[in-house]
């Protein structure tokens, strides 16, 4: 992205050469569908009424992969209503009136501290501490799309409930109990592979996978950030899955798993 700041505002030129705007569908009666795009560099929407705040002094052009160029007419923030009653804010969303879709950039989400994991036809998004934020199944046209309800600000104890970066809620989050946030930095960091492995058991997922699995278990090596995920049918299968993971990595890497950490 090239940006030039002038006295009258910010002139922006975006080169989204990996975004194909014509492949996205838009229901004129429902603007709540958002596409998760790994090729997009920025969050973008064509709906002005999504924004709670917008700076119209930010303007310029965006060029897409098909060679088309459309105008940027602002940049602002959007609130999403979560199913548990909370609200989350997404900042730095570009308003592009001629864009017939809503796009969330996975790259921009990772810059804000989120972790993205793809396996087969599933996509998972986690925040710091590996708390699950979103799980999306790939559609037949190879797109990841999710329905998100845009909200308006509500005051909680005199303050707007916000979060630095993005956070989303769907059926996966309804099963998660409220808790204090993880510290930004762990008290202990491993100095060798598999000295410390983080794990999280997520679910139940609805609908289940074709194999009837309703949960998945994630393992992350603290030192290398190496990840491995397993799908399972029941929570009671977790111990067996850990034994399988431990056996596989110890045989493959000739190293011992020393400690396991879970929330």
Can you tell me about this structure?
The two termini are 38 Å apart. This protein is mostly beta strands and 263 residues long. It folds into two domains: 2-174, no CATH class; 197-262, 2-Layer Sandwich (Nucleotidyltransferase, domain 5). Helix content is 10%, strand content 41%. The strands form five sheets. Strands 3, 4, 5, 8, 9, 10, 14 and 15 form an eight-stranded mixed sheet that branches. Strands 1-2-6-7 form a four-stranded mixed sheet, with no helix packed on it. Strands 20-19-18-21 form a four-stranded mixed sheet, with helices on one face.
Helix-strand blueprint:
Blueprint: E1 2-6, E2 9-16, E3 33-37, E4 43-45, E5 51-55, E6 58-64, E7 69-72, E8 75-81, E9 87-95, E10 102-105, H1 106-111, E11 115-119, E12 122-127, E13 131-137, E14 144-147, E15 149-150, E16 155-156, E17 159-160, H2 171-174, E18 197-202, E19 215-221, E20 227-232, H3 238-253, E21 260-262
Parallel strand pairs: 2-6, 3-10, 4-9, 18-21
Antiparallel strand pairs: 1-2, 3-14, 4-10, 5-8, 6-7, 8-9, 8-15, 11-12, 12-13, 16-17, 18-19, 19-20
Features:
4-stranded mixed β-sheet, mainly beta, 263 residues, disordered N terminus, 2 domains, 10% helix
As for the number of domains, it is 2
Question: Strand-residue fraction?
Answer: 35-45%
- Catalogue the unreliable spans: 1-7, 155-178
Counted by DSSP, the helix tally is 3
Q: How many β-strands, per DSSP?
A: 21
Mean pLDDT: 78
Estimate the helix proportion, in percent: under 10%
Shape: elongated
Rg (CA only): 20 Å
| Main beta sheet strand tally, sense and closure | 8 strands, mixed
Give the terminus-to-terminus CA distance.
38 Å
Order of helices and strands: EEEEEEEEEEHEEEEEEEHEEEHE
Please identify the structural class as seen in this structure. mainly beta
């Amino acid at each position: 992205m090239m940006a030039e700041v002038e006295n009258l505002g910010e002139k922006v030129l975006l080169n989204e050469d990996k975004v194909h705007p014509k492949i996205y569908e838009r229901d004129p009666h429902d603007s709540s569908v958002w596409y998760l795009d790994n090729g997009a560099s920025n969050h973008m929407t064509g709906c002005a009424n999504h924004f709670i705040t917008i700076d119209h002094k930010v303007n310029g052009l965006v060029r897409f992969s098909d060679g088309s160029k459309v105008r940027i007419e602002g940049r602002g923030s959007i609130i999403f209503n979560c199913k548990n009653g909370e609200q989350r804010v997404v900042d730095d969303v570009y308003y592009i009136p001629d864009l017939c879709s809503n796009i969330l950039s996975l790259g921009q989400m990772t810059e804000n501290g989120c972790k993205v994991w793809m396996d087969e036809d599933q996509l998972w998004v986690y925040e710091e501490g590996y708390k699950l934020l979103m799980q999306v199944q790939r559609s037949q046209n190879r797109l990841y799309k999710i329905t998100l309800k845009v909200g308006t600000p509500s005051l909680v104890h005199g303050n707007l409930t916000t979060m630095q970066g993005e956070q989303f809620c769907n059926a996966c989050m309804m099963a998660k109990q409220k808790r204090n946030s993880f510290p930004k930095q762990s008290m202990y960091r491993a100095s060798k592979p598999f000295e410390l492995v983080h794990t999280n058991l997520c679910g139940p997922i609805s609908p289940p996978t074709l194999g009837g699995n309703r949960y998945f278990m994630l393992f992350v090596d603290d030192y290398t950030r190496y990840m491995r995920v397993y799908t399972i049918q029941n929570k009671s299968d977790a111990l067996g899955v850990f034994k399988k993971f431990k056996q596989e990595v110890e045989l493959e890497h000739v190293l011992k798993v020393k400690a396991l950490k879970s929330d």
